[in-house]
Amino acid sequence: MRFFIRDDAAAASAHVANYMVDRINHFAPTPAHPFVLGLPTGSTPLGVYKALVERYKAGEVSFENVVTFNMDEYIGIPRDHPESYHSFMWKHFFSHVNIHPSNVHILDGNAPNLEAECVQYEAKIQAAGGIDLFLAGMGEDGHIAFNEPGSSLASRTRVKTLAYGTILANSRFFNDDLDKVPKMALTVGVQTVLEAREVVVVALGARKALALQRCVEQGVNHMWTLSALHLHPHSMIVCDEDATLELQVKTVKYFKDIEQVARAQGFEQILPSKFPIRPATLPTTIVTDEFPAPTIHSPQPTTSRLLRATPATEYPLRSRSPSPDLIPRHLRVTPDTEYTQDTEYSVISRSPTPDFMPDRMASRIGEPGLLRRSTPNPAQGLQQHQRSRSPLQNLTPRTNIMT
Ligand SMILES: N[C@@H]1[C@@H](O)[C@H](O)[C@@H](COP(=O)(O)O)O[C@@H]1O
Fold first, then answer.
1. Which are the catalytic amino acids?
2. From the CB of 43, is ligand 1 less than 6 Å away?
3. Among 151, 189, 243, 287, which is 20 to 30 Å from 137 by CA?
4. Do 102 and 191 sit in the same domain of this protein?
5. Residue finishing a domain among 246, 280, 306
6. Can you give the residue range of the structural domain that contains 244?
7. Residues 72, 145: contact at Cβ < 8 Å?
8. CA distance linking residue 357 with residue 105, whole number of Å
9. Do 73 and 108 form a contact (C-beta atoms < 8 A)?
10. What are the recorded GO MF terms, alphabetically (predicted)?
11. What pLDDT sits at residue 73?
12. Banded model confidence at residue 264, pLDDT cuts 50, 70, 90
């Protein structure tokens, strides 16, 4: 993770805007090969949007061939509500640059089928070629997008209930009236963000200091979901001095030193010319196996290999009626019988969702007699036990479903 500390919010925002302009220009997007940008809302990115608009007006960057996907949107407030993320984005950014409205994607928090909306959003991201650069802010509780503490690090775009702290923090946009703050939102998942080719986070002000400390100095932790960025090969955090208040002096010094050394070597951050860009010839859908072999400059995101999450709507179901052949005769039940804690689960080895299986230690233990040390030599007891097992028992693989 690269980490840049700037004196104040304006300098941090300018740093990020410069970086984004470099990345877009280096990519040289065309209509057939657009640059795909993931975008956040909140007060934090306002300075970045302002700087990007200025750079656009100065003729230094164009959004003509940029496609955008916003991170999240509230559920249940009209799209034209002044605090909807649709309104926010058009007010602060889109209306001031030359982006094509058809290239703008924001989740619809009023969609008739919210789950379908989420699944389609992921499909649209893939169809666009995946996100080249995801810009993000951070909640006071360390959330990224609306992935509140405890969110699965393998999560994808889905419906999310907001944490009380987030409702409280966002009430400042709703006249400090908690009742007016939406309690639910649609959000990209942690895994959706991790699959971007690059993630750039801005953290400003003392109220982000604790979350920043947890995310920078501590390990990957589902209670501070932005910390999942440690799993990303190209993530960057840019903060101001105030946001470093909870960091160790040693940490601040370490990252400042690294930046100085890098600058002395002739570069400040990874040079755009060295940075991997998505080849124009790639298929429109992302199939990671078809990407070129990973290199030091374009590693495969580890997470896309480690975490293969399914869309929120595709929960594999536990079979209610495993093949009777797998179940010893004395344990067989009728096909419609729901299994209870007393059922011998160890013989049902085909469940795709062991997480939801009730478990008792007793169910992991074989014959009760095995536990009784009838002999001072347990190994010998085990051999005796195995010899005494019926042929059916020997054929039936025993599965420790909760391990
Ligand atoms: N969903 C958004 C986040 O994407 C954003 O990072 C966070 C921080 O907001 P702010 O920048 O105003 O502190 O607010 C909301 O919760």
1. 72, 141, 143, 148
2. yes
3. 287
4. yes
5. 306
6. 2-306
7. yes
8. 39
9. yes
10. glucosamine-6-phosphate deaminase activity; identical protein binding
11. 97
12. confident
Alpha-carbon span 157 to 145, nearest angstrom: 10
Question: How would residue 377 be classed by pLDDT, with cut points 50, 70 and 90?
Answer: low
Angle in degrees, CA 129, 19, 233, rounded to 5: 55
Q: Total domain count for the chain?
A: 2
Cα(260)–Cα(265) distance, integer angstroms: 9
**Domain membership flag for residue 317:** no
Distances (CA, A) of 123 to 54, 128, 269: 33, 9, 32
Maximum average pLDDT range among 108-112, 278-282, 378-382: 108-112
Q: Which amino acid is at 343?
A: T
SS3 at position 334: coil
Task: Tell me the average pLDDT of the chain.
Answer: 80
Ligand 1 pocket check for 71: Cβ under 6 Å? yes
- Does the residue 319 lie in any domain? no
pTM value > 0.80: no
Cα(144)–Cα(193) distance, integer angstroms:
9
Rounded to the nearest angstrom, the distance between the alpha carbon of 304 and the centre of ligand 1 is: 25
**Is residue 37 in some structural domain?**
yes
Chain length of the chain = 403
Strand partners, 3: 237
CA 145 to centroid of ligand 1, rounded, Å:
7
ipTM score assigned to the predicted complex: 0.96
Please report the pLDDT score of residue 386 as a whole number: 56
Encoded tokens for 329:
């005769």
How far, in Å, CA of 80 to CA of 135, rounded? 24
Most informative mutation of 41, 74, 215 for ligand 1 (most atoms within 8 A of CB): 41
Atom of ligand 1 nearest to the CA of 146: 1
Contact 152, 308 (CB under 8 A): no
Q: Whose CA is nearest to atom 15 of ligand 1?
A: 42
φ, ψ for residue 3, nearest 5 deg: -140, 120
Asked if residue 183 and residue 96 are part of one domain, the reply reads: yes
pLDDT of residue 329: 57
CB 126 within 8 A of CB 203: no
